[in-house]
């Protein structure tokens, strides 16, 4: 896989004339060079359903007069730019209007996209219909006729469908099509059949081609779905609704799967399909640094104008980021993430146990945000991950521990690992007692919301007080552990006949039981602090949790004084005998209706780093600049200071 990719959308209505009339090989090549692009995904078929090349399996766009796909591939290959080819799979509006009986349907006669042909937009097709035969033929045609470097299929995942075809399938199997479990199980089978058919259509002719089936989200805990692809592309447009916390969460999980992966952002101010929208060059520079610091290659989304000429402003914008990536990629190839902490994803644990994670949908995001701000080195894991490489396992808010997970955690604890559990995490499936020894006895959910925590230590920035914790709390008693702080309840919950002031009632100043418990196995916090932090962002929540993690990690692999919004990661390139410290800093701000924007990149001065490693360090230097920086070796540690950096700085530690 290449490091500097562009995903070139080209969803073009049949109502627009002169398709591709402004395309020239020289302009296409000039723009790719301006953007420092080394791979570009070009279109065979768009969401509207049209082909952009001569086709027997499909219909050519009515206003295209030449083979645009072939021309783009030839132009790109001539300058050593790879060309994966895109086909819209789940959406084909031409077919949807011709065969509405092939659409995904739910009990209410709606689909996942548009419910009416009077609304502008696309309609989702069911793969349990003859449409799959059409799609497979379209894919095979591209593979046979074009020098594609891969195949990208879009808008595909297991669907909940009760169309006539799916109902007929279930009834033929003697299953009730009104039963949710039956419908979901069929959706999984239909998706698996789709993947098998498409992969066969590609690999029976060209076994080496990459194939990716994009569903917009890599489900944590579904390794089977991830490995249906040859690699992963993590769609994560920060300004398009994903936000800047989404990519680190997805990347830190993808990096544990043993697959190449890339991060896909966009050049747009908002999201896909935005003509004339541009983000600040500094935003793309930061996103590029964030991507490679998390072990990924990068893809930037663009949309080609119907005329077929690439936009110079866009490729100057992309080039501002990719010129830097080009200089840095040698220090990112064949690298592995170094992590002290394993964050067991609530989504992954719920998926493994066939449970819903909806109640805790914010927990993973809040945990990742705290770990980033606390400057911890971490992976996001599922229940299949080997725990032996980690020092601390974090169970955020809603990790119910069944027998299989208990056995894995018990082995981890016996080897000296520690657990940080919060809220309902650590409870057995009945949620009436702890499945692992956390030094506490579980009593039940707190009847008060919110409630208060009074730490038995002064918080770093807030001192001593009773701090309101907004999220769901839990009552516990000591059972061999030590209280690091206690709960204080409000005088009463806020009701029509019981209320005080503008929000919640103040704390009644008495000990209502332990709030944080430390034991030989780790620390338990009696609130859903991670979901709470994702929602409220309270400083007290973060300082309590980071204090607990630091107690469990007295010998962190890396410590730094990087500010809160800064991000640090550590990777290793064993073939080069070096570790690479990635330092990043930017401060997204909200503009408009919740759009996160990065504009100013402030220089960060005198960033100190202390790194624990067993090898003898022989050189520390800035990359890609090559400048050596002074370092102080110690017994098992090395310390150094980066005098100044802006946006993203790599530090090579050669041993």
What does this structure look like?
With 655 residues, the protein is an alpha/beta fold. The chain has 3 domains: 4-89 and 131-156 and 208-333, Alpha-Beta Barrel (TIM Barrel); 339-552, 3-Layer(aba) Sandwich (Rossmann fold); 558-654, Immunoglobulin-like, CATH 2.60.40.1180. Helices cover 26% and strands 24% of the residues. The protein is built from 15 helices and 30 strands. The strands form 6 sheets. The chain has a 9-stranded mixed β-sheet. It is globular. The protein starts with a strand and ends with a strand.
Q: Give me the CATH superfamily of the largest domain.
A: Glycosidases
CATH class of the largest domain: Alpha Beta
* Number of distinct helices: 15
Approximately how much beta-strand content do the residues carry? 15-25%
Structural class: alpha/beta
Distance between the termini: 28 Å
CATH topology of the largest domain: TIM Barrel
Fraction of residues in helices? 25-40%
User: Taking strands numbered 1, 2, ... along the chain, how are they ordered across the largest sheet?
Assistant: 11-10-12-13-20-19-18-15-16
Overall 3D shape: globular
CA gyration radius, whole angstroms: 27 Å
The largest sheet, given as strand count, sense and whether it forms a barrel, is: 9 strands, mixed
Number of domains: 3
The low-confidence parts are none
Average pLDDT for all residues: 95
């Amino acid at each position: 896989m290449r490091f500097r990719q562009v995903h070139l959308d080209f969803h073009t209505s049949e109502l627009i004339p002169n398709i591709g009339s402004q395309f020239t090989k020289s302009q296409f090549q000039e723009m790719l060079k301006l953007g420092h692009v080394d791979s570009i995904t070009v279109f065979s078929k768009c969401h509207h359903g049209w082909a952009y090349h001569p086709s027997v399996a499909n219909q050519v766009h009515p206003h295209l007069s030449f083979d645009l796909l072939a021309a783009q591939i030839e132009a790109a290959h001539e300058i050593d730019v790879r060309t994966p080819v895109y086909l819209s799979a789940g959406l084909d509006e031409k077919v949807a209007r011709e065969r509405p009986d092939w659409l995904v349907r739910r009990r209410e006669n709606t689909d996942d996209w548009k419910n009416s042909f009077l609304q502008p937009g696309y309609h989702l097709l069911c793969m349990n219909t003859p449409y799959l035969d059409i799609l497979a033929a379209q894919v095979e045609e591209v593979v046979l006729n074009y020098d594609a470097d891969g195949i990208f299929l879009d808008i595909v995942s297991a669907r909940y469908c009760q169309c006539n075809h799916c109902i007929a399938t279930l009834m033929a199997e003697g299953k009730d099509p009104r039963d949710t479990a039956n419908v979901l199980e069929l959706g999984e089978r239909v998706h698996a059949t789709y993947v098998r058919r498409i992969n066969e259509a590609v690999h029976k002719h060209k076994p080496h081609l990459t194939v990716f089936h994009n569903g917009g989200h890599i489900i944590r805990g579904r390794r089977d779905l991830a490995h249906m692809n040859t690699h992963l592309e993590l769609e994560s447009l920060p300004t398009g609704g994903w936000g800047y916390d989404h990519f680190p969460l997805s990347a830190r999980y993808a990096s544990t799967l043993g697959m190449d992966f890339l991060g896909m952002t966009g050049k747009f101010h908002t999201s896909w399909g935005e003509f004339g929208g541009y983000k600040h060059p500094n935003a793309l520079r930061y996103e590029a640094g964030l991507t490679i610091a998390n072990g990924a290659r990068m893809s930037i989304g663009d949309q080609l104008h119907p005329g077929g000429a690439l936009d110079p402003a866009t490729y100057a914008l992309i080039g501002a980021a990719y010129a830097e990536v080009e200089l840095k990629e040698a220090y990112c190839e064949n690298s592995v993430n170094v992590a002290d902490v394993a964050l067991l994803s609530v989504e992954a644990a719920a998926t493994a146990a066939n449970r819903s994670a909806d109640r805790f949908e914010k927990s993973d995001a809040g945990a990742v945000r705290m770990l980033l701000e606390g400057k911890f080195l971490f992976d996001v894991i599922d229940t299949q991950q080997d725990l032996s490489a980690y020092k601390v396992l974090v169970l955020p808010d809603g990790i119910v521990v069944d027998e299989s997970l208990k056995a894995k955690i018990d082995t981890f604890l016996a080897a000296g690992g520690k657990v940080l559990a919060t809220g309902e995490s650590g409870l057995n499936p009945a949620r009436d007692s702890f499945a692992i020894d956390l030094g506490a006895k579980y009593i039940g959910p707190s009847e008060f919301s919110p409630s208060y925590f009074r730490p038995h230590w002064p918080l770093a920035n807030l001192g001593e007080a009773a701090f309101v914790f907004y999220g769901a709390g839990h009552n516990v008693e000591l059972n061999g552990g030590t209280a690091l702080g206690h709960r204080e309840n409000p005088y009463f919950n806020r009701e029509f006949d019981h209320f005080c002031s503008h929000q919640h009632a103040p704390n009644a100043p008495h000990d209502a039981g332990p709030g944080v418990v430390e034991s030989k196995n780790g620390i338990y916090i009696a609130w859903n602090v991670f979901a709470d932090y994702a929602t409220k962002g309270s400083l007290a929540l973060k300082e309590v949790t980071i204090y607990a993690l630091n107690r469990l990690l007295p010998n962190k692999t890396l410590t730094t004084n990087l500010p809160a919004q800064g991000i640090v990661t550590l990777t290793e390139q064993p073939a080069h005998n070096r570790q690479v410290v990635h330092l990043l800093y930017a401060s997204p701000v909200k503009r408009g209706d919740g759009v996160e924007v990065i504009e100013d990149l402030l220089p960060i001065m005198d960033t100190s780093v202390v790194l624990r490693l067993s090898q003898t360090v022989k050189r520390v230097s800035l990359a890609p600049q090559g400048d050596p920086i002074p370092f102080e070796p110690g017994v098992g540690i090395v310390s150094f200071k980066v005098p100044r950096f802006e946006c993203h700085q790599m530090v090579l530690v050669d041993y």
